[in-house]
Each structure stands twice: as C-alpha cells, then as structure tokens.
TrEMBL record:
Subcellular location: Membrane
One example of a Gene Ontology biological process annotation: transmembrane transport
Any Pfam family: AA_permease
Name of the molecule in the record: Amino acid permease-associated region
Domain Amino acid permease/ SLC12A positions: 16-404
Classification via InterPro entries: AA-permease/SLC12A_dom, APC_superfamily
Keywords in alphabetical order: Membrane, Transmembrane, Transmembrane helix
Membrane-protein topology: Multi-pass membrane protein
GO cellular component labels: membrane
Transmembrane segments: 12-33, 39-60, 86-113, 125-145, 152-171, 191-209, 229-251, 287-312, 333-352, 358-377, 389-405, 411-431
Chief location category: membrane
Length: 433
C-alpha cells in the first residue's frame, strides 16, 4: 500500500465545503423534504432537525477519521484500518450499490426536470437526456479534480440562489399565517412511526458531507481542512433545510396533500409548493425548476467522483481487480474507475426509472454510517478530535433508524450484504490461489 501512487492534493477548505454542499443540495432538498412532509405533515420540521443532529454526529466522526486517515475510500478504508476487513468491505460494497442507484436517479431526475421545462413527456427522450448527462459529467471527472471542482462551484451557486429566493419569498407567509397551518402537528394514526420514518429519509438528505471524507486523499492539510469543511457544510445545510421545511409547512395542508399525491420523480416538490402555496411571485417556480436541474447535476457529478474513489480504494486492496486502481499520468484521476462508474450508472439509467426508492438508499446509507461511527470509537486518544460519546450516539441512531424503513427494503439490503461477503471470500481465494 505504501508504494501505491497517490492522488495530488488540490482542494482547500472553500472547495471542500462546496463539494459537500454540492453533494447534499440535490435530491435531499428538492425531493426528500417533500416526501417527508407527505409522511409526517407539519412535524417534518422536527424530522429535519433530528436528522440534522444525527447527521452532525456522523459528520464529526467522519471528519476525525478522515483527518487521521486521509485517503480515498471513506468508510471503506476506515473499516479496514480501525475494524476488520469484513466490515471495511461491507461499507464499500453498500456504498457502491446505494450511490450508483442514487446517481442513476439523479440523472433521470435531471432529465425529467429539464424536459418538463420544455413540455416534453417522453420516456425515450428521458433516457437519452439522462445518458447525455452521465457521459458529459463522466468526461468532466476524467479531466481532473480541479475542473470538477470549478464545475461544482458553478452548479452549487445556481442551486443556492434558487433556494434562498424560495425561502425569502415564503417568509411573509410564515409571518402572517399565525401558525394556522401547523395543526394537526402530528397527523395520522401512527404519528411517532411517521415521524421516525421521515427522520430516516431526511438523514439520507444530509449525507453528502461524506464526499469530503471520500476525497480525503486530494485535500490540502487534511487534519485542518476536512473537519472545518464538514462543520461548515453541516451548519449551512441544517439552517437551509430547516428554513425550507418551515416554508414548506406554512404553505398549508393543501400543499402537503398535493405532495403526497404528486410524482416527485418528475415534478420537484418545492416547485409544487411554490405554485400551489401562493408564494406570490410568478418567477419563483421557474427559478426552483432551474435550481432542481442544477442540483441534480451537482449530485450526479459528486457521486461519480465519490464512487470512483471508493472503487479506486477497493482496487488497491484487491477487493475488485487491481487494474481499477490505475491513475492517469498526472496522478489526478483514477480513470479506469471513473469509466467503470460512468458505464454502471448509464446501465442503471437504461434499466431503471426515476421511482428508485429513497428508502433503499436510506437503509444502505444508514448501515454505511453505522460502520463509520463504529470505526470512530476505535480511534486512539491522540487521534480523537471530538468526544467519544458522539460515536456511540451516531452508531445507536443509525442502527435504530435503519429499521424504520419498509421491511422489504432492509431484507433486500441484508441479502446484498450476504452476496457481497460471498464475493469477498471468492475473489480473495481466487487471487491467493
């Protein structure tokens, strides 16, 4: 491992923070808040806040792990270093499945929003547009981390602009509603179960901060840069998410009912809120649509980056064929891993659809971060940057929330873990022989 070629360190605090925001501000804010509101009603505000607390615990544990072990691969590498090869492999395996599906969903989501803006509703064009996005952003990632970072900055700036306008346009409605839209605050027959399910879904909406840790090998001064970037990302995102949730709830029960009936894969929930909720500014829905389009592109870009780095790490450890770990001549891009990831996402675009369940990602991501927190508990006192109780809180929260998704989802997830362990055993036996 020591003689393995390393990626160049080219990202500072500002770039890493925007990478984190670019990974978070996508399907999370434009889709999952709408889904969570349709499940939990006005109590989605609590779900967003609780998910933010759980995610922040995870974020700080990821930060101290990445600061002490700044290599590509994220929790996959932390599992190997601080736990054992089986848990490390499971983390990488689950990450690849969950995030490849998420990337395909983001590509199809972008295509849906983009074509909807032109009044086109055709499945063939949907797939072709999504494939074009995958190809273009794969080429961007192949061009190196610096160009990827610049592209991400542009995308995040447009997304943030549309979200800030949405929140500002909703302030008068929040002020003058006098809390009338908050009742009943806990709707339905099982309000606590609904709240916990919404919290599990919203947790996934925060988890893009892990992309900063996954890119740890390319960050300047990692022990200083990574914790600061993750902290700034989480603070900013929590404020933005809670503000968006408040505006969404104060738009009224009619909007929440419409969200529960809407095809969120084709129509951005925030666009529905802006149109139906009476924010009063005709241009806001159009700006939200533009923000959704750029957000999906940002998610896709950052997922290609993150997936390729995890695949790079797995190639280095021979959990996948070693050829995957090759770097380009400038030592800036694992080009074979990037191409494989691009092809895999493109294949999922061809056979998948935009209704890929958010719950499937939720279970896989919660297991992934449970392993992150477990690894953080094994840091030495000299390596530790934050109190140990953060690790215990993060671990317990992830395992608890994982079982509030649908039963079929976590059964499929457990099946994938079993298949992965069989693969891990066979490939190492083959290499050894």
């Amino acid at each position: 491992m020591a003689s393995t070629p390393q990626l160049r360190r080219e990202i500072g605090v500002f770039g890493a923070t925007l990478m984190g925001n670019g990974s978070i501000l996508g399907t999370g804010v434009f889709v999952s808040i709408g889904i969570a509101a349709s499940i939990a009603g006005p109590s989605v505000i609590i779900a967003v806040a609780v998910a933010g607390v759980v995610a922040t615990c995870n974020a700080f544990n990821s930060a101290q792990l990445a600061a002490n072990h700044p290599v590509s691969g994220g929790t996959y590498e932390y599992g190997y270093k601080y736990l054992n090869n089986w848990l490390g492999f499971i983390a990488g395996w689950m990450f690849l499945f969950a995030k490849s599906a998420s990337a395909a969903t983001a590509a199809l989501g972008f295509a849906g929003y983009f074509l909807n803006a032109f009044g086109v509703n055709n499945n063939t064009w949907l797939v072709l547009t999504a494939l074009t996005a995958v190809v273009v952003l794969t080429i961007v990632v192949l061009s190196g981390i610096r160009r990827s970072n610049v592209t991400n900055i542009i995308i995040v700036s447009i997304t943030l602009f549309s979200l800030v306008l949405f929140i500002l346009a909703g302030v008068p409605q929040v002020v003058f509603s006098e809390g009338k839209n908050l009742m009943p605050f806990f709707p339905g027959d099982k309000p606590i179960a609904s709240l916990l399910q919404a919290t599990a879904l919203m947790f996934v909406a925060y988890t893009g901060y892990g992309r900063i840790a996954t890119l740890g090998e390319e960050v300047k001064e990692p022990r200083r840069t990574i914790p600061r970037a993750i902290a700034l990302t989480m603070i900013f995102t929590c404020v933005l998410y809670i503000s968006t949730a408040i505006v969404s709830v104060f738009a009224g029960q009619e909007v929440i009912q419409k969200l529960s009936q809407a095809d969120v894969s084709l129509v951005a929930p925030l666009e529905v809120i802006a149109k139906v909720g009476g924010l009063g500014i005709p241009v806001i829905p159009k700006l939200i649509a533009i923000g959704a389009i750029t957000a999906m592109l940002g998610v896709l870009l950052n997922l290609i980056l993150g997936l390729s780095r995890v695949l790079l790490a797995m190639g280095r450890r021979r959990d996948v064929p070693k050829v995957v770990a090759r770097l380009d001549s400038g030592q800036t891009t694992p080009y074979i891993a990037v191409v494989i990831v691009g092809v895999a996402i493109a294949c999922l675009v061809l056979i998948g659809d935009v209704k890929t369940t958010w719950s499937f990602s939720a279970f896989n991501v919660l297991i992934y971060y449970a392993i992150t927190n477990f690894a953080a508990l094994h840091l030495s006192p000299e390596e530790r940057l934050y109190p140990k109780w953060l690790g215990w809180l993060g671990l317990a929260s992830c395992l608890f929330l994982a079982f509030w998704v649908e039963k079929q989802i976590w059964l499929v997830g457990l099946g994938l873990i079993l298949i992965g362990l069989i693969w891990h055993s066979l490939i190492h036996r083959f290499i050894t022989d």
